[in-house]
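=== RUN LOG ===
request id: a7f3
mode: sequence -> structure
chains: 1
length: 107
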Amino acid sequence: MQLPPKVTERAFSRLSEIGAGDQGQALRIAVEGGGCSGFQYDIRLDQPAEDDLVLEGLGQKVVVDSVSLPFLAGATIDFTEELIGARFTIDNPNASSSCGCGTSFSM
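=== RESULT ===
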């Protein structure tokens, strides 16, 4: 059994700040083919779907579809604010390498 991804309180707080849950939206974390390393993350606000894994905290939801789930086993979804901007980040132990932009990885 694979560990589901974890979502930090900072990530849930940010979703709360932007009012995602109030609009019936969840943060969708998906993995798709492409990017400079073979796979890339697709991170966006979306409606939860029936086959999603739903991670909840602070009244907010983060959803992962069943196809992306194996790629995100044990990953940590966080929110960081840096000089280059604020963004949701994914610390993925399954990625063997990732690119500088942090949105693409290989396994």
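=== NOTES ===
The chain is about 10% helix and 45% strand.
The first helix runs from residue 9 to 17.
=== END ===
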